[in-house]
Amino acid sequence: MRKVVAFLLIAGIIFSFGSVFAEAKAPDIKSVSAILMHEDSGRILYEKDADKKMYPASTTKIMTALLAVENLDPAQELTISETAIDIDRDGSNMGLLSGEVLTVEQLLYGLLVHSANDAANALGEAVSGELSAFVDAMNVRAAELGMTNTHFVNAHGYHDEEHYTTARDLLTVSVEAMKHPLIRQVVSTAIYEIPPTNKYTETRILSNNNCLVNQFRDHRYAYNGAAGVKTGHTSDAGACLSSYAERGGRGFFCVTLAAPIEVEGNYSFLDTMALFDYAFGAYSLQTVSNTNDIVTTHDIKWGRGTDQVILSAKEPLEILLPKGYDKAKLTTDSVAEENIVAPVKKGDVLGRLTYYYDGEFAGSVDLVATQDIRRSFFKMIFISLLNFVFGPWVMIPLALFVVLSLLHSMHEAKKRRIAREKRREQARRNFYQ
Q1: Cβ distance 398 to 372 under 8 Å?
Q2: Residue 177 and residue 151: Cα distance in Å, rounded?
Q3: What residues contact residue 227 under an 8 Å CB cut-off, 6+ apart?
C-alpha cells in the first residue's frame, strides 16, 4: 500500500511540474472581437475574430487625436465654431461654447479623457477646415496605415452603419498614436482640469472613462501598469476598449470590441484585464543571444591572415517567450552582407540575426564583427591581377587570338599540303615524260 501511495505522490509531483512548465492557455472572453499584441516585437499573442467589421464607437477618437498631433501645435489656441458644437446631445460632450478659446492640448484631453464629441469636431475643423474634409483625411490616413477594413464618416464615432473598423485595424492606429509622447501622457491621465475660459466661468474637471487607468471612476477595474488608450460605447457597438499596459519592460496592446455589460460588470474591462493577466503571467522576457556568442562566420575579401570574419550579436537580445516554451519551436535566421571586404573594425554591423517562435517573428539583433581585420594589399593586388588576367576583358580576346591563330595555322598547313601534292604531281609528270 505504501508503494502505491508513494507512486501516486511522485506522479502527482511530476504532473504538477509538467503543468507549471506547459505553455498557459489564453482565457475565454465574451467580447465578440479582440486582439492582444506585444509592443516591442509586434507579435500577436491572442486574437478572436480580429478582422470582423465592427462599430468602433468613441475609439474612433484615437484617429482624430493622431491627426491632431500630426498637424497641430499643442499650444495653438482654437476658437470654437458653431458647427463644431452642432452635435447630437445624447452623445458625450464637454460643453464647448461658440467663440470659446482653448488650446489644442486642452481639447486633446477633452477628446481622449472625457471622450467629448464637440472636442473631436473642433480638432477636425482645425486640421482640415471642414469636417467633411477631415473625415476624408481620416480615411486617407487609415489607408496609409494599412487599415484595409476601416471606414470613417465622422470624427467622434457616433453610430453610423457606414462607420466601422476591426480589432486589428484599431490596434494599428492605437500603436501609431501611442508613438506620440503627448498622446501617451493624455491617455494615462486619470483626472484633468481645464481652468475657466473666455466663455466658461468654472473649472472643467475631466475624469477618464478608462477605468483601467482611473481608479476613481470604478476601483474594481483599476489595473497595475495600465496607461491608455480609449473607451467607446453605443447600444449598437457595445462596450469597446483599446488599451495599453506595461510592466517590467513588457508592454502590451489589447483591443476588445462589442463586449457585453452584464450584472457582474463591463466585459470590455474584464476581458482586457484577463488578456493582460494572460500576457504578463504566461510570457516573460528571456535572453536568447549574448555579445560573446559566436553566431556565424562569413567569407571576407582581402583579409590579412584570414578569409573569414566571425559575427556575434551587437548586444544582448531579450525576446518575449511563453514560460515553459518548447525550444524546438525557437528558430533563427542569420543574414550577412553578400560581399564583405577588408578592412573591417570590431563592432562593424555586417548582418542581422532574427528569432522566430513557432514560425512567428519574435525579435532581431544586428550582427557585428568580433575583431579588427586589416586589408592585405598583397592579396588585393595579386587577386586583382589574377582577376584581370583571367577576366573576360583578357580571356575573351586571348581566346579569339588563340582561335584565329589555330585557324591560321590550319589554313597554312592546308596550303603547304596542297603545294606538296602539286610538287609530287609535277614530279610524276616529269618522270613519265
Answers
A1: no
A2: 18
A3: 184, 187, 188, 213, 244, 245, 246
Q: Is there a catalytic annotation at residue 3?
A: no
Confirm whether 237 is domain-assigned.
yes
Question: Considering 31, 33, 92, 115, which one is annotated as catalytic?
Answer: 115
Quick check: 58 and 240 in contact, CB under 8 A? yes
- Claim to verify: residue 325 and residue 201 sit in the same structural domain: no
207 is catalytic: no
Instruction: Verify whether residue 61 is a known catalytic residue.
Output: yes
pTM of the predicted model as reported, rounded to 2 decimal places: 0.81
Range of the domain at 188: 26-282
> What's the structural domain count of the chain?
2
Tell me what pLDDT residue 89 has. 73
Q: Do 56 and 229 touch, CB atoms closer than 8 A?
A: no
- The active-site residue out of 48, 61, 230, 314 is 61
Q: Among 31, 58, 242, 364, which one carries the catalytic annotation?
A: 58
pLDDT exceeds 90 at position 398: no
Q: Write the pLDDT tens digit of every residue in 190-216.
A: 999 999 999 999 999 999 999 999 999
- Please give the grid coordinates belonging to residue 367: 550582427
Dihedral Cα 301, 303, 307, 310, nearest 10 deg: -100
Q: What is the mean pLDDT of residues 169-196?
A: 98
Strand, coil or helix: 39: coil
